[in-house]
Amino acid sequence: MKGHGAAAIGGLLATLVLADNTDGVVQWGIQQRQAPPSSTTRIRRRASTFEEVISNQEARGGYFASCRMGTPAQDLTLQLDTGSSDIWVPDSQARVCAARGTQGCDLGSFNPSRSSTFEVVGRNEFDISYVDGSSSQGDYFTDVFEIGGATLQNMTMGLGQQTDIAYGLVGVGYAVNEAIVGSTQSLSSIYPNLPVNMVNEKLINSVAYSLWLNDLDSSSGSILFGGIDTEKYVGDLTRIDILANSQNLYTSFLVPLTSLTATSPSGSDTLTSRQFPIPVVLDSGTTLSYLPTDLAMQVWKEVGAVYSPELQLAIIPCDMQNSKGYFSFGFAGPNGPKIKVSMDELVLDLATSGAPTFSAGAYRGKAACEFGIQNFTSAPYLLGDTFLRSAYVVYDLVNNQIGLAATDFNSTKSNIVAFPSLSAPIPSATVAQDQSEATNKPSVTTPAYVASAGFTKGAAADDKENAAPGPSPSLGLACALVVISMLFGSGQVFPASR
Ligand SMILES: *[C@@H]1O[C@H](CO)[C@@H](O)[C@H](O)[C@H]1NC(C)=O
Ligand SMILES: *[C@@H]1O[C@H](CO)[C@@H](O)[C@H](O)[C@H]1NC(C)=O
Ligand SMILES: *[C@@H]1O[C@H](CO)[C@@H](O)[C@H](O)[C@H]1NC(C)=O
C-alpha cells in the first residue's frame, strides 16, 4: 500500500487473461508468482532462485496480472494493488530496466516512443512512494490500456522514469487516493482511475470488484471487475461499512476488526487488545498481516512463533504449517462476518536457497519460516495476503462497503453475477446487523491459552523427539533465547550469538 510505515509490495507474477465483458463484468486472471530477480526485489515465499540476503527488509510479494498498452500493444505484467490507486509502468529507459541491457525488466516495461497513441498529460506530475520505501516518479500520460480483453482507449497512467521497482502496478483503490491528489493537495486533480474508467466506458456497471486470491499453494486467483462469483465462496457473503477517515473521506479499504479467536483441537481462546476495535486496511499489495503488538504477541504465543530481533520478524518452525489450529477474524461487531485463517496459510518460506534453521533454543535444528501475522506500532493496521487468501472480498467503492465470505479454495466452478447498476448493493450479500456495536471496547483479559497445546501437537508428528514444546513462559515472546543462524544461497551466515 501507499504511504504507510509497515508493509511490502510484492513480487508474484501473472498471466492468465480471461475476458467476459459482454454481460457487465470484466474478469482478469491473476497468478501468484515469485518476484523477478533484480537489485531491488526482496525475497519472499518460494524465492528459490533468488540470491539475496534477507536482512530485516520487508519481503516483496504479491499478485500479478498481464495487460497490454499502447499502439501497437506492448505486453506488461503488473502487480495488482488494492492499497494504491494509480496504474503505473516502468519506462524502458528507466535505469532499473535499462541496466539489464536488451533483456530489460523481466515483467516488461513501456516504450512510449513506440506507441502512436501515447500522450503526456502531466509532465513530472507522477510521484508515488510505497510503504516499504520504494518509489516511482515521472510523467502522467494517457494511452490505450487493455485488460482481460477489455480495452480502455484513454487511460491515465504514470510513467516510472525514475524508479527502483522493476515492475509496474495496477492500483485499484479509491480515486481520491491517487498520487496526484497527494502531490497537489487538491481533489480537483482526480482523474478516472481504472475501476472508474471502466464504468465510464460502460464496461461494468458499478465501481466495484471481487478479489479471490485462492490458496497459498495455488498459483492463481482472480479479480472480477463489476460483479461477484457465487461459486468462489462458501456460506454467506456479508457486507459491512468501510470506515471514513478523519476528514470523512473514503480513501482506503479500512474496516473495523472487532474480535480474534484462536482455536485448535485443545480448545479455543478469545484474544483481546487495548486497540479493539482495530481499524485494518484490506491490502492486496501487502504480503503479510500487521496487528497491534499486544494482540500479535498473543497470536505468537498460541502458535509458538518467536520474534527475531535480527530479522525484525516473527518466525516459526516451518512444520507448523501442518498445525490443525486456526484463527477467526471478526469484523464490524458481534454479528459481523468472521473469517477463519488456518495455519497452512500463515507459515511462509523465508527463502528456499539454503533453508534457514534455528541454531539454538527449543527449535534447534528446525527449518525457520516467516509467520503470516506480524506486529506494528500504530494504526492503520494491515490485513495483507496472508489474511486475504482465506476470504472472498468484494470491494464496493460506490456504497463504501466490503463484502466478506469464506473463500472456496481451488474452486473450478463459476457463477458470475454482475452489479445491475451504479449504486446497486453487492449482489447476493446480506448486510451485517448491529454494526454500531463495532465501536464497543471489549475488556482486556489474559487468555488462558487452552488452544496453544493443540496448535503445536501433531504439527511435527514425524519428529517426536525434537518436537517443539508448546510455547512455554521460558521461551518468552521477547525472544531472548532465540538464536537463529541463516544460511542463504550467497553463503552469508548471520551471527548466531546472543
Ligand atoms: C482522456 O482522459 C483525460 C483525463 O481523464 C481527459 O482530460 C481527456 O479529455 C481525455 N481525452 C479524450 C480524447 O477523451
Ligand atoms: C489447492 O490446490 C493446491 C495446488 O494444487 C494444493 O496444494 C492445495 O492443497 C489445495 N487446497 C485445498 C484447500 O484443497
Ligand atoms: C514487535 O514486537 C517486538 C517484540 O515485542 C518488538 O521488539 C518490536 O519493536 C515490535 N515492532 C513494532 C514495529 O512494533
UniProtKB/TrEMBL annotation:
It holds the Pfam family Asp. Residues 1-19 form the signal peptide. PANTHER family: ASPARTIC-TYPE ENDOPEPTIDASE, BETA-SITE APP-CLEAVING ENZYME, ISOFORM A-RELATED. It comes from the Eukaryota. Gene3D superfamilies: Acid Proteases. One of its GO terms (molecular function) is aspartic-type endopeptidase activity. InterPro entries: Aspartic_peptidase_A1, Aspartic_peptidase_AS, PEPTIDASE_A1, Peptidase_aspartic_dom_sf, SAP-like. Keywords: Aspartyl protease, Disulfide bond, Hydrolase, Protease, Signal. The active site is at residues 81, 283. The lineage of its organism: Eukaryota, Fungi, Dikarya, Ascomycota, Pezizomycotina. One of its GO terms (biological process) is proteolysis. This is Probable aspartic-type endopeptidase OPSB. It comes from Cladorrhinum samala. Belongs to the peptidase A1 family. Residues 63-405 form the Peptidase A1 domain. The keyword Glycoprotein does not apply. Disulfide bonds join 318-369.
